Amino acid sequence: MAKFKFLLFAGMLVASVSVSSVFGQLAVSKDSATTLVGVRVSHNLGGLNLKNLSEKILYKKTPQQDMYLYVLRPVKKANKPLPVIIYFVGGGWVNGAVEYQLPVAAWFRDQGIVAITADYRVKSRHNTTPLECIEDAKSAVRYVRAHAKELGIDPDKVIVAGGSAGGHIAACTALKGGDAAGEDLSISTVPNALVLHNPVVGEGFRGDFFKEHPEFSPILKAYKGWPATIVSHGTKDSTVPYSGAKNFVSKLKELGVDAELITVKDAEHSCDWPNSNPNFLPTISEMTQFLVNHNLIDEKDVLLKPIAPDSLYPSSDYAPDYVIEWSKNHYKERIKEFKTMPIMTDNIVMLGNSLTEGGKNWGSKLENHDVVNRGISGDVTQGVMMRIGEICFSKPKAICMLIGINDINGGNKGADETLANIHKIVAKIHDLSPRTKVYVQTILPTNYIKLVPVIAAVNKGLKEDALAKNYTLIDTHAVFADEKDLMKPALTSDGVHLTDAGYEVWTKELSKYIKAQ
User: How many domains does the structure of the chain reveal?
Assistant: First the structure.
């Protein structure tokens, strides 16, 4: 029998919120991706959007409903069959929808392999039992193997994934029995590697089912030759007890299985998902490395290398001085958000205040999906300096910075101090990440006459010092200013913030530089 490798993960749904104001005007950003072509990072997209962007394939007809696979293919074209991951969402065998699982599947799609989320029958939608859940899981795996050539996958590198009850049915693909009538049983459903998130393993949850069906208890029926297994579990899980995962992994080790347990301290059920969970990246990175070690992911395709430690982010109680209370609170919230979306080596970072944040999906605007938004409404040069360590940790390809208007307005700083602070940020970038290309944008005009000379003085210094300070100047001020050096009325909503037309002008100017990256 050929050996097959499977990974198990839980589902999640992501909401994207951004604030489009220098001084505090809130706006909600919608998930705007309309294709995955050219998209390197997809796991931060919303589950419903990913569902719409997936390739939908019928894998099984049942009396209750047709069952489908939702396929996400990696951005790079492959010249050989790829590993594949098949996911099953959790929900206690009662609930569960693929859109909650797809962002986790997308993480592994971003690591260069094919990612599939398989729908299966559940009690709330189909009035079924755990037995049908197990049957469907086996059917999905068998379908993928049987259609490996047309799917472009390597049938010896199939990974099954899921969490909670989804973790249980994934583990059951390694057990005997539970197959649908009429299927080709010569096609194995046994995986070589399981990655389980807070899985139901037959101890401490739904004991009534396992008493009646001990043949589907992974902790009872694990055997020598069981797939290599990595498990994550929260120590305060009151739904599926942590002790079950601990005992399961201990038994696997006694059987000689390559098994690991990631203990997520003080975490409840769903210990490391959705991807907004602070435990997500540390855990999923460890699981990714597990797959690298088992030759299921090519290390050169791994999207996220070491994660920036908390010490490189501003402390949880830090907020910039001289900004309004709303902006201080928003700064803290954005830092929390950034911890769930760390900078990658391939990224081009848009760095600044709410003018930048208000641009929302800069990758779409600039037709370059490596571009990420690191704007924070109300931010000042001091706030940027405090977070530049995290931004530079992964040595991004480029940083494009626009900062300073809040320093000279709400912060009441003069031109000299503001200019000096911008130069300090540039020097810090060069120190922490010498190969990162640095773009500095001139401060945009406003319709406040009193700010005209101060903005002009800062911009003059930025232009004069670009060569000596080793950055590329982008004179954005020039394309926004009228003959009086005020903001052109059609480009602003309130004299500072930009209209859609303003963002179009800005995007056109930035495209001359960013598209060339």
Answer: 2
